[in-house]
Write a structure and sequence with these properties.
17 strands; Aldehyde Ferredoxin Oxidoreductase Protein, subunit A, domain 2; 26 helices; 623 residues; six-stranded mixed sheet; Aldehyde Ferredoxin Oxidoreductase Protein, subunit A, domain 3; Aldehyde Ferredoxin Oxidoreductase,  A, domain 1; alpha+beta
Length: 623
């Protein structure tokens, strides 16, 4: 058996149908080829899921919680983990990420990850503690919100336990339900996108409670500290990190607005003066933000704490939430948005998908394609904050029109029909985040090609289009945000590198140079890898996920954007007159990735990456 550093070398496999728990050793080859985090999750799901086309809510879906080799080490911002499965929202590859402390606790309890198969007969939760694990009855927790669930499990198991749980939305299979962890006293930290909470609910799995007293072993801690001592001034001097330290992600609102990047009225307007109410400085001035908080080993403290009253307190809204529940719907009351954010967390639903789906309904109602007969008597009006609060309650409980909205905008628009599909802003079923691709055209390509659907974090390309460089990735020149030539390979390499980051399990905001991260990985694990080897692993993982999508019918036809971004320029603002010219960027991207013109990875690429045997059954028949 190998001596593991960075890893624990053990993964829990839980069969909920049979009520069995097995500890399996991590294979060295898997660690070398797939690193950890999302990479190991992808390998396990492809290998363990007999039919990737199975219904995401069926017992055949495989749900994986996985940390990375950096999780829980002294490397800054290394508290991350991934939750992955087939998505009930996109009906293809699904992954969600979170930081905080839960992943660290899992490793301290002796496990790199947990794999769930099957479906429990009755509601259960998993209790993991210092190398042991047991399934326990959760019938008394079923129906409770995330705050109450966290509180009761802490009472039952002791206050030091870390809990990852779903709320009523996950139980009732809202397709964008989240997994919420580190809920009390000042969370939650949310694995938010692609509906992983609904997959938990479909398996009658309410929560995973973890307690560990062990340590994450590091091969060469002295040299790791030496490297970090030199890196810390670089991290703290970053202008973006300084903004986040002071105001959190809302600190960038004014800049995003000036670019024409912040969406207004379902991506139809370029100017709205009320945006100034959402700035990070204003949230502090009016008292919504009370304190600065941090995830594991984080020197930045971008997590902000709010306390509106005795009930509504916890994590303050981030930029994405302020836009999705604010400017996107023309709601300008930051206190109401903070309350809406709290309700989303309470029920366990993704704020981005919530806002975009409601915006679809508002525009469809405005155009006369959705009526009071459809909505149960509700009148949809832009700027109606009280309606937003009511709709969140209906979605969280899957009641009334909330049953339709809980499907996500793609499936909801198909259920309603009548041309409402035009107003649904999604890619592959995942609602578009709060960055308008007409302002950063590389982001448009990233949205179109990301394996989990529209995702701003699968490459963070708009940072390059803002003027940042990535010398280690051979991105030497500033890219004009409105230019399309040369964007294909930049998006490709950034997606690959960010896949590496989610496999190492480290926060994307920290922005440690790639060569330094390769060195840190080697010093922590004793498994020497240079940057090129890490990038090869990232390419392997990204192609593996793509092949899972190919098995579910994803091709070039799905690597697209809503018509609004392709054909409807804004009339004013920082992106005035722009549309996304996607096709030439897509051609360049496919060529760089080694995929054919239909977006299918070429056989020789899969063979070169060592995954052909894993995915050969997914390849279309050769002519």
């Amino acid at each position: 058996m190998p001596e593991w550093y960075g890893y624990t070398g053990k993964i829990l496999h839980v069969d909920l149908t049979r009520e069995t728990i097995e500890v399996r050793e991590l294979e060295e080859e898997d660690a070398d080829m797939f690193i950890g985090g999302v990479g190991l999750a992808a390998k396990i799901i492809v290998e363990e899921m007999a039919d990737p086309r199975a219904d995401p809510f069926s017992p055949e879906n495989v749900l994986v919680f996985m940390t990375g080799p950096l999780t829980g080490t002294m490397v800054p911002c290394s508290g991350r983990y991934v939750v992955a499965a087939k998505s009930p929202l996109t009906l293809a590859w699904g992954e969600a990420h979170a930081s905080g402390f839960w992943g660290v606790e899992l490793k301290r309890a002796g496990f790199d990850g947990i794999v769930f198969k099957g479906k429990a007969k009755d509601p259960v939760y998993l209790y993991v503690h210092d190398g042991e694990a047991e399934l326990r009855d959760a019938s008394g927790l079923w129906g409770l919100d995330v705050y109450r669930t966290d509180s009761l499990l802490k009472e039952e198991l002791g206050g030091s336990v870390r809990v990852a749980t779903i709320g009523p939305a996950g139980e009732r299979l809202v397709r964008y339900a989240v997994v919420a962890a580190d809920v009390l006293p000042d969370g939650p930290r949310v694995a938010g996108r692609t509906g992983m909470g609904a997959v938990m609910g479909s398996k009658n799995l309410k929560a995973i409670a973890v307690r560990g007293s062990g340590e994450v072993r590091v091969k060469d801690p002295k040299r790791v500290r030496s490297v970090l001592h030199r890196l810390l001034p670089l991290i703290l001097s970053s202008p973006t990190n300084q903004i986040h330290a002071s105001c959190g992600t809302p600190g960038e609102i004014e800049e995003f607005y000036e670019y024409g990047d912040m969406p207004i009225k379902n991506f139809t307007l370029g100017v709205w003066d009320h945006v100034k109410k959402f700035t990070g400085e204003n949230l502090r001035r009016i008292g919504i933000v009370k304190e600065h908080k941090a995830c594991w080993a984080c020197p930045i403290h971008c997590w902000k704490y709010m306390e509106l009253d005795e009930e509504v307190k916890g994590r303050a809204p981030e930029y994405e939430t302020l836009a999705a529940l604010g400017s996107l719907l023309l709601i300008d009351d930051p206190f109401l948005i903070a309350r809406a954010n709290y309700l989303c967390n309470k029920y366990g639903i993704d704020t981005i998908s919530t806002g975009v789906t409601i915006a679809w309904a508002m525009e469809s109602f405005e155009k006369g394609l959705l009526t009071k007969e459809d909505t149960g008597g509700l009148e949809f009006k832009w700027g109606d904050g009280e309606l937003l609060l009511k709709l969140i309650e209906l979605i969280g409980r899957r009641e009334g029109f909330g049953k339709i909205l809980g499907e996500g905008c793609r499936l909801a628009s198909k259920l309603i029909g009548r041309g409402t599909e035009k107003y649904c802003m999604h890619v592959k079923g995942l609602e578009v985040p709060m960055h308008d691709p007409r302002a950063f055209k590389g982001m448009g390509l990233q949205y179109a090609t990301s394996n989990r659907g529209a995702c701003h974090l699968q490459g963070y390309v708009f940072r390059i289009e803002q003027g940042e460089r990535a010398y280690d990735l051979k991105i030497y020149d500033r890219l004009d945000r409105f230019e399309v030539k040369g964007k294909g390979w930049v998006v490709g390499i950034r997606e690959i590198w960010f896949t590496v980051l989610e496999s190492l399990a480290i926060c994307k905001f920290i922005d440690i140079p790639p060569t330094h991260l390769a060195g840190l990985y080697s010093l922590i694990t004793g498994r020497k890898k240079n940057l090129d080897q890490l990038l090869e692993a990232g390419r392997r993982i990204y192609n593996l996920q793509r092949m899972f999508n190919v098995a579910n019918g994803i091709t070039r036809k799905d690597d697209t954007l809503p018509e609004r971004f392709l054909k409807e320029p804004l009339k004013e603002g920082g992106a005035k007159g722009q549309v996304v010219e996607l096709e030439p960027m897509l051609d360049e991207y496919y060529e760089y990735m080694g995929w054919d013109s239909n977006g299918i990875p070429r056989r020789e690429v899969l063979e070169e990456l060592g995954i052909l045997k894993l995915v050969e059954r997914f390849l279309p028949p050769q002519p």
